[in-house]
Design a protein that fits this description.
The protein is an all-alpha fold and 114 residues long. Helices cover 94% and strands 0% of the residues. It has helices at 2-27, 33-113. The N and C termini lie far apart (74 Å). It comes from Chryseobacterium daecheongense.
């Protein structure tokens, strides 16, 4: 989770830095205010579109990773459940067998005592 937050933070920092650089460059350029404002607006729109695209890419990657992790977890949980069930069945059969042997031995001893 923190890796995702770091990536988002770095992305936001880069976009903010780029936006600030563009705005400062345009403000100090020798053009009319109206033309400068128009360029700033266009660049801001471009940066907004880039941010939306990056957000979409990052969002898709996160969804894919979540899906992969989720399916891996489900598969692992299923494997663990099968292993536990197999172990339970194995030991249950052994216990039933041992119990049957003990019951037969006890019955034989009781018959001998009669």
């Amino acid at each position: 989770m923190s890796k995702k937050n770091n990536t988002a933070g770095i992305l936001a920092g880069l976009l903010a830095g780029a936006a600030a650089g563009v705005v400062l460059g345009m403000l100090y350029a020798p053009e009319e205010g109206k033309e400068t404002r128009k360029k700033i607006k266009n660049k801001a729109n471009d940066l907004k579109d880039q941010a939306k695209n990056k957000y979409g890419e990052v969002s898709e990657k996160v969804k894919d990773q979540y899906s992969n992790i989720s399916s891996t977890f489900k598969e692992t949980a299923s494997n663990v459940a099968h292993t536990v069930k197999d172990g339970y069945d194995k030991y249950k059969d052994q216990i039933v067998s041992k119990t049957t042997d003990v019951v037969k031995d006890v019955e034989a001893e009781l018959n001998d005592l009669k």
